[in-house]
């Protein structure tokens, strides 16, 4: 007896059996019940999501001989239903659009369409991959689609609806089939394994469902390949050995070494994956998927349904996610995605991948904006030190002062325990505590800029902040930051504060004098060739359009 593959054996037989396309199934059921079945349908979606299956179910529902009229629950036992299931019904004609794409085939279809069905209610044409029809063939369909005989129904299926001409689409009811979620694929695979009485380990289902990539047929085909190995119980190890699935533990190990900033161990972990048989593109893809899981955990927690992981994998991913910040994960994912094309087409793919991985692991060695501002501050202080007569400097803290954990909460009960802010002295005395407290409201970057400022005056609820850095003041005044800072400080101090930003006159004088000793061209070259500036330009993909010193 010949073997029937799982994708055919477990094909859905009725609308209620369809997995992942419940809204479309319900719509078609209601159309049948209310007698509003269209004469032409266009089913679109990626491979293996149920387009042809739904077309056959609709054909059975319209022609079921066990009912006196179209029914939303075909019996699947009468001669018509069983013949449709195996594709041999004389009144349900399935046509492959790829091999019957000429105008002559469509003309023949039109000639035969005028004859009534042999035994059923409707003559139904199911044309798969309809986008493969030629322009002439599409045009030949138009007349019969616009004014079809009452006994004719058309069901078109395609993976590329953009190639179906608009005049044909406008004459059809279109249904877009979504990719099936990994959770639903996993549930169906479990049910199939239990019906087949095949033993399996729990760690198999999640990675197998993810490998299906939204296609139920692909998931069942992959499961068929595993069963063909003859090994029981089926496990995730078989996925690695026979289907080339990346080892989840090795991918986790690579991400862990990146999080630990261990350059040597990162390269060793990447080499371990390469030695297991993966190429550079597969490693990049697997790392993108894993870092996506970490990003989801950071944003939505470990209990979210957006993750397809075992309990043990969730626990280990949760621990690792604590070592990353969300911005770093977003950067890593986008960088790897941009790198994929180069890895596919480069003869030096491995060095490219290793360079990117080292960039992630050693990210703290690359300058960010706060570090650049600190360096500019240090250079300004160095130039000032060269002057023979040095005025007294005010003690402005550096911009990149460390920010500790917040102590401020906006709840009324916690605000009652905060010191009372009544005058400029109380603001000055509590300034560092204020900066620590407002981190959750403003973020580390904006709060870091305020570390270069000191409160100097409070009159009629107008608070003056004096900056030691013109660059920090300018950034605080841009992009609505000033209003944000004002609102948060007013909430903390429980006063209707207004803000005024100033530059310390002594600091401004110190930074202006040295510039007079150099021409504009020399200063511009110094700034453009500064390593910090070069790093920022490279990271942002920016171009210098002008240099202006404040």
Distance between the termini: 86 Å
Report the uncertain regions.
388-416, 512-517
Categorize the overall geometry. Answer: elongated
Domains, number: 4
Q: What is the CATH superfamily classification of the largest domain?
A: P-loop containing nucleotide triphosphate hydrolases
Helix fraction, binned, reads: 40-55%
Instruction: Bin the strand percentage.
Output: 5-15%
Query: Over the alpha carbons, how many angstroms does the gyration radius reach?
Result: 34 Å
CATH class of the largest domain: Alpha Beta
Structural class: alpha/beta
Q: Report the CATH architecture of the largest domain.
A: 3-Layer(aba) Sandwich
Strand order, sheet with most strands: 2-3-4-1-5
